[in-house]
Amino acid sequence: MVARVNTVAFQGIEVLDIDVQVQLSGGAVAFNVVGLPDKAVGESRERVRSAF
To answer: What is the pLDDT of residues 10-34, one digit of tens each?
Structure first.
C-alpha cells in the first residue's frame, strides 16, 4: 500500500510544506528517513517505529 500526505510545519513565522510518502508491504521491517532531516527528526525514528 502506498500513501502520500501533504501537510505544513511552522518554523517561527515561516510555513514549510511537508510531503510524507509511505509504502507498506509484507516482508522484513525497514524504516528510512530520506532528505535532509535535522537532529530532532533523526531522534524521532524510534517513536515512529514503535507506532508501526
So the answer is: 989 999 998 888 887 777 677 777 7
CA 29 → CA 3, 12, 24, 42, distances in Å?
A: 17, 36, 10, 18
Task: Tell me the one-letter amino acid at 21.
Answer: Q
- The β-bridge partners of 15 are 10
Contact in structure between 32 and 52 (CB atoms under 8 Å): no
| Global pTM exceeds 0.70 | no
Q: Which residues pair with 23 in a beta bridge?
A: 2
Tally the domains of the chain: 1
